[in-house]
């Protein structure tokens, strides 16, 4: 299996209702989790991400959707049951999804580049990270640090139980397992011991994802 990163930007004109026909392809617990979201955009992000990772698993591991079952570690990191060699991680933000698949543990985080909130940086980042943002004076650098920190705790699998100021993503031993891609207005960071620097990020439209989902049953 090739390590890959997928980027899907959602089309705001496409209604959530168009996906209702795929709902039954998900287990009841996931359907209930999606139903609880207040806004259709969050329902869409969660539904598409879950269906698309199922599609990728079917394609890469030659499995049928019904044979796919996810479990979560005690911190909520999902993994595929019955195949310890397949790793994945999902991230969503309004209005895009990033998914990484790998033969090694992986953490992925995506954010849309907006105005940097330096109060967040002062509160959650450590001094070298803050200095990196302040010396570069661009919003992009704030989001680079943010997504790197998130990708790191998602790679580790313990999520936010790791205090965000307890590690420094500019420090060389951590930085060497991190890789950042900028695509349109989005920034994606990947954390993996696998070298992702030459890895191709596959950019997909919502229509092309819909085509893929038609192959799921
Ligand atoms: C849950 C968390 C792991 C990621 O949350 P997030 O950044 O809001 O959301 P993302 O879209 O990037 O990731 C969510 C997905 O990560 C996966 N995930 C959940 N827990 C995980 C964990 N412990 N480790 C790895 N992946 C995890 C799931 O697939 C989840 O998708 P789902 O909610 O549809 O099941 C956690 O780090 C968090 O809440 N972060 C927000 C903290 C923050 O405010 N940071 C700002 C300063 S850096």
From TrEMBL:
Ranges of residues in domain 4'-phosphopantetheinyl transferase N-terminal: 16-98
Keyword Transferase attributed: yes
Presence of the UniProt keyword Transferase in the record: yes
Gene Ontology biological-process entries: lysine biosynthetic process via aminoadipic acid
Any one Gene Ontology molecular-function term assigned to this protein's record: holo-[acyl-carrier-protein] synthase activity
Annotated ranges, domain 4'-phosphopantetheinyl transferase: 105-191
InterPro entries noted in UniProt: 4-PPantetheinyl_Trfase_dom, 4-PPantetheinyl_Trfase_dom_sf, AASDHPPT_N, P-Pant_transferase_sf
Keywords: Transferase
Cross-referenced Pfam families: AASDHPPT_N, ACPS
SUPFAM superfamilies found in the cross-reference section: 4'-phosphopantetheinyl transferase (SSF56214)
CC annotations in GO: cytosol
Family to which this protein belongs: Belongs to the P-Pant transferase superfamily. Gsp/Sfp/HetI/AcpT family.
Protein name: 4'-phosphopantetheinyl transferase
Naturally occurring in which organism (per UniProt): Anaerocolumna jejuensis DSM 15929
